[in-house]
Every structure is written in C-alpha cells, then in structure tokens.
Design a protein that fits this description.
- The protein has 333 residues and is an alpha/beta fold.
- The protein has two domains: 258 residues, Alpha/Beta hydrolase fold, catalytic domain (Rossmann fold), CATH 3.40.50.1820; 60 residues, no CATH class.
- The chain has nine helices and eleven strands.
- A seven-stranded mixed sheet has the order 1-3-2-4-5-8-9, with helices on both faces. Strands 6-7 form a two-stranded antiparallel sheet.
- Strand 4, helix 4 and strand 5 form a beta-alpha-beta unit.
- Helix 3 crosses helix 4.
- The longest helix has 19 residues.
C-alpha cells in the first residue's frame, strides 16, 4: 500500500458528501473500501466529549449493520446501534464505521484489511484530535481488530474495546471447509479453535502489550458479549452472556446496547494546539497524547515508517525489519 502522508491524502480524498459517507476532508486511504461517520466536518472536534468509536462489521457485511440492517431476532424496533449511541450522548464526530471490504464481500486479504484498519484508526485520531479511539466490533470484525492491534503493537491507541459475538463463540468449525470452498476464504481462519484464533488469543487471555508511551505493559479495557453458544469470555475482560439471541440479533439488541454504550463512554479532551509542539496534529506524550516525539513533525501515529533506520516514526515502539517483508515490525525497546 502507498505510504501515508496527511496533506496529499487530504487533497486526493474522495469527496463523499451524500448521507452515509465520510466527511469530504477526511484523509481516507486511496485503497480503503470506504466508511461512514464523522458528522458535518472537522470543526465539530472542538466539542469532543468521548474517545471516538470505530465500528467494525462482521465479515461480508458493511456499515449498514450498525444503522439497522440485518437485525436477526433482536426484539423491538430499536435496532440502530448508531442511533442508540447518539441517544446515549455520543456526537456524530465521535461515531465512525469502517467497511473492510466492498458491500456484500468478504475481506479476502487479512494483510490489506489490517493495514486499512491501522490507517483508519490513525486518520480518525488525526481528524478528531483525540488521543485514542475505541473499538466496537461484531463477529469476525473482532478478529480483524485484535489482529491489527497485535500486528502493529498499537493497543495503546485504543481506550476501550467491545467485542460482540466474537468468532471463538459463534464460528462453526464443521462448516468452515465447505464455506471456504464456496468463496468465503476467511471462514476457516475464523473457525473455533483455529490456529489463527489461538494466536490472537480471542478465546484465551486479552494480550498484555507494551506501551511505548509509558514503557510499561498494559491490557486494553475490554468487554466481550456473546449469546451463550460457545466458550466463556476472554480472561482479563469484562464479560456478559445474553441468551436467546442469534448472531445478528446480539449485535443490535437493546440489552447489548445497554451494556456497550456506558462501557464506551470514556471521556476525552478536545485537541489543543498548545499541546502539539511540533504541529503534526497529535498531542504530545508529555500532555497525555499519542505523539512519542513532540519535537519532530515526521513522527506521529500512522506516519510512514523508514525501514531499518532505528527510529520509530509511527509511535508503536517498533521499526521495520531491514531484511524486508510487509510485516517485519521489530521492537526497539
């Protein structure tokens, strides 16, 4: 994928102005399939109250799931997750939805999907001026989120996570091979007990990751919600079991949203230019922000990483392996 720089992307951004789009000045990566959210423009970030929420749908779905589509057996008509969060006090600039693939298609490349999510997280932070984001993911969207945070060591960019019906609880290993042959290449990877799920610990512990801002290891504040058909929730998380709901119903049921919305009401401070000494759009670590070097404008979350130079440009505590490879992140601590 092309390297990320803010100004060229702002100029080349797709001008999406219709309802159900991103703001026209949002720095969308040219290869990102799309997304929705952000309200009426960047000016709204002055009133930021909570860390922005990034909603990630199940594989083969898109942002419409969060707007009231595919409601399963959720009771009642109150099934729009976005509207519920709005009533709970979230503002439009605090609500974002990423489409990991084109509508109706799976994200066939885990490599590209994790790249896109990393960029989207950094873009939302830059656009809103928030120091961190929050993740609300459904089904295989939880797998995508955990893979991205582990792959890039960016859990410190996330204030809280809510995983609804994560794959370890809902995937059907007996049908995984059949679904793979029918054109759903991620079905096998997301089957319960698969090596991939074991690696990201979706049905074990929430990983403890190194935070380059503090030099310490930390867990991300996480809530897991499932419908009772599967293994227990992740150790090290808050957990809730809601029986009687199918996979789609669990995502948008009022009982789920009554748990998720308060969990995600993590207070944020609006961006203050006085706390961004190098002017790269991110608050410096000395002020509680994510910028690990507030004296150098080429170092910020999501910055292009220079391979093997021993410098952590994107603030994840790693450099790219000089031997090459797309995922060659090596720790610098």
């Amino acid at each position: 994928m092309p390297v990320m720089t803010w100004e060229p992307l702002l100029l080349a951004t797709m001008l999406l102005t219709a309802p159900g789009s991103l703001p026209p000045d949002f720095p969308l990566h040219p290869e990102t399939h799309g997304g929705v959210g952000g309200g009426g423009g960047r000016r709204e970030r002055a009133g930021l109250r909570y860390f922005p929420v990034i909603m990630i749908p199940d594989d083969g779905r898109d942002h419409r799931d969060w707007q009231g589509a595919h409601t399963g057996n959720a009771p009642g008509a109150d099934v729009s997750v976005v509207q519920h969060l709005r009533r709970a006090g979230f503002q439009p600039i605090e609500l974002w939805m990423l489409d990991p693939a084109d509508p109706g298609r799976q994200w066939t490349s885990i490599e590209e999907a994790t790249d896109d999510l990393k960029f989207f997280i950094a873009s939302v932070m830059h656009y809103t001026g928030a120091d961190r984001v929050q993740i609300l993911a459904h089904g295989a969207g939880a797998l995508l989120a955990r893979l991205t945070l582990l792959k890039y060591n960016i859990a410190h960019w996330v204030a809280a996570e809510v995983y609804i019906g994560f794959p370890a609880a809902v995937a059907d290993p007996e049908r995984a091979g059949e679904r793979t042959l029918r054109g759903y290449p991620n079905a096998w990877a997301a089957a319960a007990g698969s090596p991939l799920l074991q690696e990201v610990l979706l049905h074990g512990n929430v990983p403890v990751l190194h935070n380059p801002l503090t030099g310490r290891r930390q867990r991300t504040r996480t809530l897991t919600i499932h419908g009772g058909a599967g293994p227990p929730g992740l150790r090290g998380t808050y957990h809730a079991e809601l029986s009687g709901l199918d996979h789609d119903g669990l995502r948008c049921a009022p009982a789920t949203l009554r748990l998720a919305a308060p969990f995600l009401k993590q207070k944020a401070r609006p961006y203050d230019p006085a706390e961004d000494r190098d002017g790269d759009g991110f608050r410096g670590a000395a002020f509680g922000g994510p910028d690990t070097d507030d004296t150098e404008p080429s170092i910020y979350p999501g910055a292009p990483e220079i391979r093997g130079d021993g410098i952590d440009q994107d603030g994840n505590g790693c450099d790219l392996d000089p031997q090459g490879g797309r995922d060659g992140e090596i720790p610098l601590w």
